[in-house]
Amino acid sequence: MGQVLHGSATTTEAVRRAIRTIEYSMGAHVVVQLLTRQPERFLTAILGGVSGRCDWSAEDQRRVDVEAAETDEGVLCSQFLRLRPSGSPPPGG
Hints:
InterPro entries: AB_hydrolase_fold
Strand order of the largest sheet: 1-2
Structural class: alpha+beta
Low-confidence stretches: none
Number of helices: 4
Helix content: 40-55%
Number of strands: 2
Order of helices and strands: HEHEHH
């Protein structure tokens, strides 16, 4: 069994050599991007809590760009509205 690293030690070690990693949610998104750009940095990668981006459309990209810009500003309005239960009234309604 290899050495288990956490936090900033993981990112430092990832720069030095190929690694085995298990990531979830946001960490999985980050590793997926790295896997597509620099696969030689990974021996294995186990990803959870994230789905693939098959058949990504221009509308999907527009939505993500809007939500990312809102997140940068500390606002989650578009994401909140998109993820609220169907049939529920809009906020303030």
